[in-house]
Hints:
Layout: H1 4-29, E1 35-38, E2 41-43, H2 45-61, E3 66-69, H3 90-93, H4 101-104, E4 111-119, H5 121-126, E5 133-140, E6 143-151, E7 166-171, E8 175-177, E9 190-194, H6 200-208, E10 213-217, H7 220-228, E11 234-237, H8 244-256, E12 260-262, E13 283-286, H9 291-297, H10 300-307
Parallel strand pairs: 3-4, 9-10, 9-11
Antiparallel strand pairs: 1-2, 4-5, 5-6, 6-7, 7-8, 11-13, 12-13
Helix pairs in contact: 1-2, 7-8
Amino acid sequence: MAGQVVRIVAASVSIANRAGKIIRDVMSKGELGIVEKSKNDLQTEADRSAQRCIVASLHAQFPKVAIFGEEQLDPHEKVNPEWIETSLDPDVLKHKSKCSDDIKNAKDEDIVVWVDPLDGTAEYTQGLLDHVTVLIGVAVKGKAVGGVIYQPYFNYEAGSGAKLGRTIWGIVGIGAFGFTQAVPPEDQNIITTTRSHSNRMVIDSVNACEPSEVMKVGGAGHKVLLLLEGRVHAYVFASPGCKKWDTCAPEAVLHAAGGKLTDILGDDIPYHQTVPTRNMTGVLATLCCDHKWYCDRIPASTKETLRG
């Protein structure tokens, strides 16, 4: 029998695909229902509906597992029955025998699921659809161990009639799937960072890493996909802007692929259910490059400021 983590990831693959269809349906109807939660922090009907789908579907199958979603919604609101997804992806389940004992034996009380129903909301409203992802991350005893990154608009530039969507998933110790891993150019140092939440610390930290090129894009999930596909060398974000639901799934997938995601100090990000949701000390991620090299180049003044 598959352990609970494998079952949650298998369920999350199916659920993320259903949520992705909801996101596309909202866009096609043209009624985004945009709400500004705070400065530079938008919410749309796609965010709300996708989270209802994801959380309700996970609760239906794993009622004792703690689940945290980005959007603050009425927990008593009825969810469209057609949005409840209960299938388990067979491609995930077939890897169950490879699971390590500590993940295989994880109990419900050890597990926390972090959900970002639509990572890259601003980009979604601006038509930058390749930046948009659905993120479902699974943590065991505070460590990100499983994740699903779903791109609802993957292949959208191929024209009408093209099949949309791509699912990337990973479990630490098993591997990462759904993409072609590549190595970034050896003679360059391409860094990705935020396109909408920049400040002097972010700029100075990126520049301190001596980039040959800077790619400013939206969404933590999208930035980690750039790492996985060898399009960038590092993801540098020296600011408290990201939340646990932004980083849990990307971190798990990146670690499963052999990479590393920490805060800007080089310390692990904890994902227990009692931790603050905001990642106060930023994000640093690498795959094929020396993580410590980048960490050591972050200005000491920036690290002190983020430590508080």
